[in-house]
């Protein structure tokens, strides 16, 4: 009997935290790359809703295939992180407890995803090697120095002393090698 009550409570709690999309709502596609200390990385396709909440895009039992579909579209340039929008169709479910958006089987990616192309005035993309100036500023009339030396800042921003995870490496990873920064 105790298990039945627990199951009923769990079902009630999960029903409250799930929202079925009844009207079309646009969300902005995001491509996140997590770099682990062991050198491995994990990639995820997410969508930022109009209220600012980020949800992982899922297909339920087809989760891996759905993620693979979105990540491949990011890699081949069909989807642009922060510029492509997806219209969530009726029947999509947003589960706030897991932070996932479950897409229905019949979603039409051709019509439901729109991309602002880099030539548009809404997206400014710079590719290639870019020069970047990092300025170390002393405050309080020069009596307070930043916690990092110039060589440490250079390493953190450009990897000049072997820092594998730095500003330059992250831009290269997110742009698939199309954007880099030189000191």
What brief labels describe this structure?
single chain; 183 residues; alpha+beta; eight-stranded mixed sheet; two-stranded parallel sheet
Entry summary:
This protein is α+β, with helices and mostly antiparallel strands.
Structure description:
With 183 residues, this protein is an alpha+beta fold. The protein contains 5 helices and 10 strands. Strand 6 and strand 7 form a beta hairpin. The strands form 2 sheets. Strands 1-6-7-4-3-2-5-8 form an 8-stranded mixed beta sheet. Helices cover 27% and strands 27% of the residues. It has helices at residues 2-17, 63-75, 109-112, 150-158, 167-174, and strands at 18-20, 25-35, 41-48, 54-58, 84-88, 93-95, 100-102, 113-115, 128-131, 179-182. The longest helix is centred in the N-terminal third of the chain and has 16 residues, at 2-17. The relative contact order is 0.14. The radius of gyration is 22 Å and the shape is elongated.
User: How are strands sequenced across the largest beta sheet?
Assistant: 1-6-7-4-3-2-5-8
Name the overall outline: elongated
- Class inferred from helices and paired strands: alpha+beta
> What kind of sheet is the major sheet?
8 strands, mixed
Uncertain regions spanning at least 5 consecutive residues: 1-16, 119-125
- Work out the strand percent: 25-35%
Count helical runs: 5
Taking all Cα atoms into account, the compactness measure Rg is 22 Å
Total number of beta strands? 10
Mean pLDDT over all positions: 75
**What is the helical fraction, as a range of percent?**
25-40%
Distance between the termini: 67 Å
> How do the SSEs run, as a string of H and E?
HEEEEHEEEHEEHHE
């Amino acid at each position: 009997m105790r298990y039945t009550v627990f199951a009923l409570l769990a079902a009630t709690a999960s029903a409250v935290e799930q929202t079925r999309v009844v009207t079309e709502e646009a969300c902005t596609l995001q491509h996140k790359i997590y770099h682990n200390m062991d050198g491995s990385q994990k990639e995820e396709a997410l969508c930022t809703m109009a209220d600012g909440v980020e949800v992982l895009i899922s297909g339920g039992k087809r989760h891996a295939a759905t993620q693979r579909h979105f990540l491949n579209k990011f890699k081949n340039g069909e989807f642009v992180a922060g510029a492509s929008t997806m219209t969530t169709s009726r029947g999509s479910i947003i589960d706030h407890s897991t932070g996932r958006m479950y897409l229905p089987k019949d979603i039409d990616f051709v019509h439901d995803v729109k991309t602002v192309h880099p030539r548009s005035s809404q997206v400014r993309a710079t590719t290639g090697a870019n020069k970047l100036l990092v300025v170390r500023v002393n405050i309080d009339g020069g009596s307070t120095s930043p916690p990092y030396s110039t060589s440490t800042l250079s390493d953190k921003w450009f990897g000049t002393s072997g820092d594998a995870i730095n500003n330059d490496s992250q831009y290269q990873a997110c742009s698939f090698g199309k954007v880099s920064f030189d000191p």
